[in-house]
Amino acid sequence: MKENKAQMRGIKYLWHNLEYILAAVFFVIMLVALFIQVFFRFVLNNPIGWTEELAVTCFVMMVYIGSIGATRNDEHMKMEMVINLFGPKGRLVMLIIGDVVFAVANLILAYGIFTVSLNLKKYGMTTAMLHIPKWIPYMVLPICFVTMDFKLLQNIGKKIKKIKELDNPESASVNKSANQEGE
Q1: Closest Cα partner for 167 from 50, 89, 54, 102?
Q2: Given a cut of 70, is residue 1 above it in pLDDT?
Q3: Is the pLDDT of residue 133 over 90?
Q4: Number of neighbouring beta carbons within 10 Å of residue 88
Q5: Which has the closest alpha carbon to 137: 64, 69, 71, 66?
Q6: DSSP letter at 132?
Q7: Mean pLDDT in residue range 159-175
Q8: CA-to-CA distance for 100 and 142, rounded, in angstroms?
Q9: CA triplet 145, 150, 152: central angle to 5 degrees?
Q10: Regarding predicted confidence, which is higher, 56 or 175?
Q11: How large is the average pLDDT for residues 142-164?
C-alpha cells in the first residue's frame, strides 16, 4: 500500500515536472554534444559537424519546452511596472489581458510554424549533418505553443476565481474552510 502511494507520488511528480525534466534532458544532450565538439576540435584537431547541429536543435527544444513550465507557473514575461499601477483586482484583469494577448500570439506562431513544418515534410527536407527530417524538430514548436495556450487558459481560470473571491470575500472564506475540512 505504501509502495503504491510512493509510486503514485513519483508519477505525479514526474508528470507535474515533465517540461522541466525534458528541458533538462535536452540541456544535458546539448552540453555533451558541445563537449565532444570542443574535445575533437581543440584536442584532436579534427572537428565534427553534427555536434553543432545537435546542440543548436537541443537548445531550441530546451528553450521552448522550458517555456511551457514557465507559462504553467505564470513566470512568463510581463510588464510589471504597468501592472503594479493598479489595485489587486486591476492587476488581475491586466494579467488576464496579457495572457489573452500571449495566447493569441502563440496561436498565430503555432499556425505559421505548423504550415512551415508541413512544407518541410512535403518536400522531404532533412538537416544537413544528422539527416533528420526537418519537419520533426519544427513540429515540436507548434505543440509547445498550443501547450502554452492550455496552461494560459488554466492560469486565466485561476485569476478569474481570484477576482470573484475579491468581489465576494465571504465565499472565499467559506471555500477556504471547506477545503481545510476536506484535507
Answers
A1: 89
A2: no
A3: yes
A4: 10
A5: 64
A6: -
A7: 77
A8: 17
A9: 90
A10: 56
A11: 94
